[in-house]
Every structure is written in C-alpha cells, then in structure tokens.
Amino acid sequence: MKEKRAQHAFSDVRFQLAYGIFLMVLIPFLIIFNTVFIINQYNKNTDIALQRQALLLARMFSATTKNNLQDTFALQGILDSVKSSSPDILSLHILAPDSDEFRVVASTVLENINTAINDNYYSIAFHQKENNALATDSVKLAQINGKIGLELVLDEKRFWLVSMPLYDSQKNKIALLSIQMSSMVVDELTNSSWRSSLFSLALSTLIAVLFLAASTRLWGYASLYKKIRQVDAMKDEFISIASHELRTPITAMRGYVAMMLDGSYGKITKNVRSGLERVMTSTKRLAGLIEDLLNVSRIEQGRVILNMKSLNPKNVIGEVVGELEPVAQEKHLGLEYSSSKSKIENIYVDPDKLKEILLNVVGNGIKYTKHGSVVISHEIKDYSLEIKVKDTGIGMSAEDQGRLFEKFFRVQNDYTKGVVGTGLGLWITKQLVQMMKGKIYIESMEGVGSQALVIFPLAKTITSKKSK
Ligand code: ADP
Q1: What's the confidence (pLDDT) of residue 326?
Q2: Which of 394, 407, 410, 420 to mutate to test the pocket of ligand 1 (most atoms within 8 A of CB)?
Q3: What single-letter DSSP state applies at residue 111?
Q4: 230 touches 5 (CB < 8 A)
Q5: pLDDT by residue (tens digit) across 13-44?
Q6: Is the pLDDT of residue 271 over 80?
Q7: How far is CA 129 from CA 124, 126, 273, in A?
Q8: pTM metric for this prediction
Q9: Are 260 and 279 in contact (CB under 8 A)?
Q10: pLDDT in tens, 210-229
Q11: CA–CA separation, 62 vs 218, rounded Å?
Q12: In the chain, which residues fall in CATH 3.30.450.20?
C-alpha cells in the first residue's frame, strides 16, 4: 500500500514537471509563432501593394505612349522623367522585337541602348495580352539563373521585375516595357518591425517563463501539501492502531493489579501494596492517554457516531458529580450542584458525549484547584441552556486562554507540572460540543479561578426547526 502511494506521488510529481516544461516551451513558442506570422503577413501585404504600384505604373506608361511608340527620342525622355520621379524605380527599358531577338530602343541605363537580347523571359512577357504584365520577384529570378537579359539580380537587394507589352493606338503590339522596382522600402519596414517586435517578444517570453517558474513552485507546494496530508493520514492510522493494541494489555494489567490489591492472590505486605498502588496510578494514566489518543483519531477520521436525543441533562450532570465526588473529596474540595435552584429544559445531544464533555470540564476544575470548590449551575438564556462550571482554582493568563483549545496545549507552571494530563481534553471537548451544535467558552483569572460555559440550544428550538 505504501509502495503504491509512493508510486502515485512520484507519477504525480512527474506529470506536474512535464506539464510545467510543456507550458514553458509552448507559451514562448506561441508568442514567437504569433509574431513571425503577423510580420510575414504584413510583409506579404506591403509587397503586394508594391507589385500593384509597379503594374499601375506600367499601365499608365502604356496609356500615355500609345501615340509615340515609334519616337524613341520621346520615349527616352519619358523613361528618364519617370525614373527621376521615384527612388524605388531602379531601371526602365523599352525593347522592340527584332527578328528572333529584342533590341533595346530606350533605357535609363544608357549603355544598354541598341543592345540586342535573346531571352526567353522577354518572349513570354511579350506574349501577354494588352494591359497584362509579367511580374516576378528577383529572389525567384535568382533561383533560375541570376541574370535575366538586362536585369541584374543585385545581391540581397530584392526587386520586382514587371514586363508589359506596349500597344499602339491601332492595337498593334509594338514594344515591351520592363520596369525594375526596388523592394527595399518593404524590406526595411519589415526589418524595423522585426527589431521592435524582438524586444517585446523577449520581454513577454521572459514574463511567461517567470510566471511559469513561479507557478511550478506553487505546484511544488501543492504536492508537498498532498504529501503532508498523506503522512498525516498515516500518522492517524498509526495512532489508532497503536492505541487499540495498547488498550488490551493495559486493561489486563489494571485487572490483575486490582485483584492483587483486593487480596485475590493472597495477603500482601504494606510495601508491596504501596508499589502496586503506584503501578495502578501509572496504568490509569496510560489508559487515559490511550483513550484521549483514540478519541482524537476517531474525531479526525470522522468516525464519531452521535446518538442524538432530546434529554434533560440533570441526570447526566448528577452522574458526573457522582463519579468525580471522590476525586474532589480526596483534595478536600467542595463539588456542588444544586439542581433544584434553577430552571432546566431539554437539550438535543448525545448523552454519552455530553457526559464526556462535562467529565472533562468538571474534572479540569477539580484538577486545577488547590483550595475551595467547583460549582455547577445552569440557566436558560436566548433559547439555549448554559451549563456553568466555576472553580476557585489557579486560573490562567489571557495569553494561555487564547491557546486553550489547541491540541496538546498545557499551561506550564509549577502547579501544572504536578498534574497528570495530555493537553488533549479540551480539544476533544470542543470538537464534541461543536459536533452537537453547541458552544464552549472558558473565562479565567490567574490566581482567582476559572469558569467554563457549555451552551446547547434547547431541544424544542431544534425540533420546531426540523418540523418546519
Ligand atoms: P489536560 O489533560 O492537560 O488537563 P486539557 O486540554 O483538558 O488538558 O487542558 C489544557 C490545559 O488548560 C491544562 O493543561 C491546564 O493547564 C489548562 N486548564 C484547563 N482547565 C483549567 C482550569 N479549570 N483551571 C486552570 N487551568 C485549566
């Protein structure tokens, strides 16, 4: 069983670790993916806009040169003025078909004029219909052969090559216009958005990683908490088993010692009697401790079964007084309960648990009182019965009162050192009182005495609530 638990805890930790690493990789990856996607999309859109601009330019050129396509001088003038209008235009050429080849009739690159070119690219472009153009990215051009006719593919500097046939006013295809349009603006814009995005990307990735690292620590705490609860449950189980196992031999020891003391095994000397009496006191002490531990484990494991009924607590208080009278007498203390003095009504409780509660509270009154008395009384207040146990004992400081209902808490002073106790009684008492919908308060003054107040709602208020 222990092995299974350990395996389970281990696989839990492994799962949490894997989940943490998965998120640590996934979140930055998603942020990076998102940035790359947005920038690429932006780049594509701007590039398309540039391509359209080149096409528009080619169409405008085609429209304005319809009537002077034969006038190379005029064409050269237009080319030069168009080129000077925008730094994005790298070059402009007009080629005329000449048998199987093309001849440059006008160009912004003067040394190209009159050059004859035989290139498949221009032939394909020349076969386009009116107003249609062949638009190609230089990167694609470079992939084919690095140089197309007149158009040099410049290192790393991207451009669009747009070639369009030119028609005269009689719709005869006369020449071919070739425009080289720089993509530098687009690429620079893209680069600058990359630079600014990189900073926010690094920052958001860092925040995501820090956040995840912090939450991994929280997972660590969660698994630690789980482990603590498991260990706590194992401790409860151990205490429960150990206490059960100890109870049987203690009962046997008590029985035999009692029989020896009452002479069942023959006459005993005074010395043996005093020794046996000490053994008896210690066994009783041990039995009390075991009983308290068993009660704690029953409460913590939710194994307390309540047998609730409406009852007049007079008899239970009477039984408690009867059982504790000899103890009080032994200490020369008065133990008073005048049942006839005040009014009493039924309360809704488990009689055995009520007895346990009162035995502890009245027992404490006797235990922690040197001189004087312990007085039990009750009164009806706000539809509840208040049972008061007042002693003239050692009392306690306000600080100690605050910790009174903690498990294993005992006031440390010269007097309490000599009193047998576990520090569990009031914790158990409070749990039982609360289980039966009651309340318990203890007021005390050092050197003057203490008063415990155990309050339960009257049975009639509970039954009337139930019947509603
Ligand atoms: P214990 O077994 O030590 O009596 P309890 O839980 O019943 O354990 O009480 C806790 C501590 O509260 C005691 O050790 C004692 O110091 C203090 N105490 C409880 N009742 C009284 C009282 N009537 N007068 C003074 N001190 C008290």
Answers
A1: 95
A2: 410
A3: G
A4: yes
A5: 677 777 777 877 787 788 888 888 888 888 88
A6: yes
A7: 11, 8, 129
A8: 0.57
A9: no
A10: 877 777 777 778 888 889 98
A11: 70
A12: 2-191
Residue-level pLDDT at 142? 67
CATH tag for 2-191 (out of 3.10.180.10, 3.40.140.10, 3.40.50.300, 3.30.450.20): 3.30.450.20
What's the average model confidence in pLDDT over 85-113? 89
Q: Going by CA atoms, what residue is nearest to atom 19 of ligand 1?
A: 364
Find the 366 Cα to ligand 1 centroid distance in Å.
Answer: 10
Kindly give the number of the ligand 1 atom that is closest to the alpha carbon of 412.
Answer: 16
Q: Is 349 in the pocket of ligand 1 (CB under 6 A)?
A: no
Ligand 1 lined by 313 (C-beta under 6 Å): no
pLDDT in the model for residue 306: 95
Is 333 near ligand 1, meaning CB less than 6 Å away?
no
Q: Is the dihedral of CA 195, 201, 207, 213 positive or negative?
A: negative
The protein residue whose alpha carbon is closest to atom 4 in ligand 1 is 421
3-state secondary structure of 220: helix
CATH number of the structural domain 306-467: 3.30.565.10
Tell me, using a 6 A CB cutoff, whether residue 364 lines ligand 1: yes
Which whole number is the average pLDDT over 260-269? Answer: 93
Query: Measured in angstroms, how far is the CA atom of residue 411 from the centroid of ligand 1?
Result: 7
DSSP 325-349: HHHHHHTT-EEEE-TTTS----EEE
Q: Where are the alpha helices (DSSP H) in 65-183?
A: 72-85, 120-126, 138-144
First and final C-alpha spacing in the chain:
48
Distance 254 CA to ligand 1 centre (A): 26
Residues of the chain with CATH 3.30.565.10: 306-467
Q: Supply 459's token pair.
A: 């049975």
| Nearest ligand 1 atom to alpha carbon 426 | 6
Task: Check pocket membership of 450 for ligand 1, CB cut-off 6 A.
Answer: yes
Q: CA 279, CA 273: separation in Å to the nearest integer?
A: 10
